[in-house]
Amino acid sequence: MIKKKIAVFHSSNDLYGASKIMLQVVDILVKEGYEIHVFLTYSGPLNEILEAKKIKLNILNFGILRKKYFNFFGIINRVFKITSSIGIINKYLQSHKIDLVYTSTSLVLAGAVSAKLNKIPNYFHIHEMPNNKIYLKIMGPILSCLSSKVIVVSKSVEVHWKKYFKNTTISLIYNGINFKSNKIDAKIKSNDIKILTVARLIPLKGHVYLINLARKLLIKHPNLMFLIIGDTFKGYEGYEKKLKKLVNDYGLNDNIIFKGFKSDISKYLESSNFLLHPSIDPDSLPTVLFEAAQSLLPIIATNRGGAAEILDNGKGGLLIPHDNLDLAVKLIEVYISNSDLQKEKKEYAYTYMLSNFSEQNFNENIIKFFKP
Q1: CA dihedral of 134, 138, 143, 146, whole degrees rounded to 10
Q2: pLDDT for the residue numbered 180
Q3: pLDDT for 201-247, tens place per residue?
């Protein structure tokens, strides 16, 4: 039997949620007998992982559609990068006789355009929920035109994009998490109440909102400690500096600690009291919530996008508003002082996620999706 060849295009080279899902998909396809060729836009930690799996890896700047390029010169830059990379991708698809393109994000167009030009299928795996209406009106029809089939990672993402994909098959496939057979109950090793946040340092993740929440909470609860794990994208260094300056200006350097990127967050989960996910824009399906549930860590999240789905509309954790600081503070103060409510919600979260976001279901659904 001749192996079917798939070219995979991914928007980042890191170890955050979307990249972990891409690796899961690659592993599934390899086990199913597909030959995989991966395209990444820059070198990073995925290089070593993919090379160890003997995956054919290509580094090519194919023009990721990040928010920082949403200006006149940025758009010109992206058009140039996308169009110049299409010629290279076309030659690669033809010389390697690629049968299918899998684009693991809506932020990448070059691979999809090349698939269209070569008359082979392109499957989009959409994680994003952009809230710019002009962007959606432009990108929705483009993505629909370039898609043979589409995977969305949550109901929120499906609702967000569905009206643009009227003639395209959309499959909801929740990310699959390898829950351990035994729960890992978080152990507190300090008198301080540690609140952990794990997310890229980019505006939509809500770190400014988090800092302002912390500032208000610390007035009555000076024993709170906020640990922030995560780094930023190239080009967003100014945003990271802004966050650290804000903490310094508020005089909160002893209570809000930036830890940078950590490949293994389990020790932080196990030594924290709460996970706080403060996204101010819709976040499709934040995988760190699964990791927190595995550690039986009480979860607090803004009521945006996939977080509400993961927490079953608040049954599995505290949902707070993303745009009402005072109300959010009041809700958090009540929650952190109610151990019975925390226990109820974290137990529910573990059971709910185990039932609805299993790795086995994910694997079976991905195999089914890629079969002709």
Answers
A1: -170
A2: 66
A3: 999 999 999 999 999 999 999 999 999 999 998 778 999 999 999 99
Q: Tell me if the pTM is above 0.90.
A: no
The architecture (CATH level 2) of 193-356 comes to: 3-Layer(aba) Sandwich (3.40)
Low-confidence ranges of the chain (pLDDT < 50): none
5-176+358-370 and 193-356: same fold? yes
313: left (phi over 0), alpha (psi -120 to 50) or beta: left
- Look up the CATH superfamily of 5-176+358-370: Glycogen Phosphorylase B; (3.40.50.2000)
Which residues are registered as beta bridge partners of 149? 123, 169
pLDDT score, position 183: 55
Looking at the DSSP bridge assignments, the partners of residue 39 are 9, 58
The pLDDT, as a whole number, for residue 264 is 84
| CA 346 – CA 45 distance, rounded (Å) | 32
Rg (CA), the chain: 21
71 phi and psi angles, rounded to 5 deg: -150, 175
Q: Provide the pLDDT for residue 17.
A: 86
How far is Cα 294 from Cα 328, in angstroms, rounded to an integer?
Answer: 25
Kindly report the backbone phi and psi dihedral angles of residue 10, in degrees, each rounded to the nearest multiple of 5, phi listed first. Answer: -130, 145
The domain segmentation of the chain, as residue ranges, is 5-176+358-370, 193-356
